[in-house]
Every structure is written in C-alpha cells, then in structure tokens.
Amino acid sequence: MTIVEKYWDDAREGDVCTSPSYIVTKERILAYADLTGDHTPVHVDEEYANASHFGCLVAHGLFGLSIADGLKTQSDYRFLPGMSLGWTWDFLLPIKVGDVLHVKFRVGSMRASKSRPGWGIVVLPSELINQDGQVVQHGEHRLMVPRRPEAL
Predict the structure, then answer these.
(1) d(CA 11, CA 1)
(2) For the chain, how long is the longest CA-to-CA vector?
(3) Facing residues of 119 across strands?
(4) For residue 75, which of 19, 63, 87, 147 is within the disulfide window of CB 3.0 to 4.6 Å?
(5) Coil, helix or strand for 75?
(6) pTM of the model
C-alpha cells in the first residue's frame, strides 16, 4: 500500500484517522526507562510496583505520549515532514503491561501561518486508547506543515 503524505492544503477540518495498534510489554517499559534515565521504581521494580497504589508495573506518562506520536506516523493519514509546535497532553489512566494501544486523531483546526509563508498550522486533537476502549491519555498536537507550492 502506498501512503501519500499530505500537504496542509490536502487536509480538511474534521478528517479522522485511527492508527495501528501497539502492545505494551515490560521490556518496552524498561527500554524506555533506560533511554530516558527515569528508573522510578513504579516503572522498573515489579515488587515495588505491585505494592503501590497501581498494583503493577506502569509505563511512564511520557512513554504514552511518545507511543501516541509514533503511532500517528504509522497511520495512513500523514503529513509531509514539518515542525512540531508543541503538545497539550493529559495523563488520565495508567498504562500497564499487556495494554494494546491505538491513537484516534482528527484535524481540529487549520490556518495559514502568518509568519512563515508556504506553511500552514494544523491542530490534531488526539486520544490514546487501550484495548477496553478507555482513553488513557489525550490532548492536542500543533504542527506546522508545508503548503502546496501551487496553492500560494
């Protein structure tokens, strides 16, 4: 299957996409801890985590955001490479070993950039959802995306 990356001009407010899924494993959580240097016991020590209010190992909050961003790039709704302008993101429920996650996102708003001709800004409200249909994290990603040269 060929994926066509979108210019800003190709997107429409209200467009919706659901990503492929991702299985959370203990090994992936531990690898994230090693990558970031965050070895907080609730993420890496099963005995400690089992005795905590979570009752099990849980992923780092930013693990979820990182996975959400990666899953968006694996979807069939992709933009040409641009620039991330920032995130507003909330952690609602713990992410646990064995969770199967996917992202649902939509094009929430769009506007042409005032400061950078040839670019447009897109806001993508997004939800990170587990296998039970529970939204574990959600928020918005703001992107600057190239415009079609002929549209300028």
Answers:
(1) 20
(2) 60
(3) 146
(4) 19
(5) coil
(6) 0.94
**Domains of the chain and any CATH numbers:** 8-151 (3.10.129.10)
What is the distance between the alpha carbons of residues 72 and 78, in angstroms, rounded to a whole number?
8
- Residue recorded with tokens 């646990």: 96
| Residue 1: per-residue pLDDT | 59
Count of CB atoms situated within 10 Å of the CB of 64: 25
Q: What element of type H or E holds 70?
A: helix 61-73
Q: What DSSP character marks residue 7?
A: P
Which helix (H) or strand (E) is 41 found in, with range?
Answer: helix 41-44
Tell me the residue type at 15: D
Sign for the pseudo-dihedral over CA of 31, 103, 123, 88: negative
CA distances from 109 to 10, 47, 66, 140 (A): 13, 45, 22, 11
pLDDT of residue 3: 74
pLDDT (tens digit per residue) in 43-98: 999 999 999 999 999 999 999 999 999 999 999 999 999 999 999 999 999 999 99
Angle between helices 61-73 and 26-36 (to 10 degrees): 100
SS3 call for 121: strand
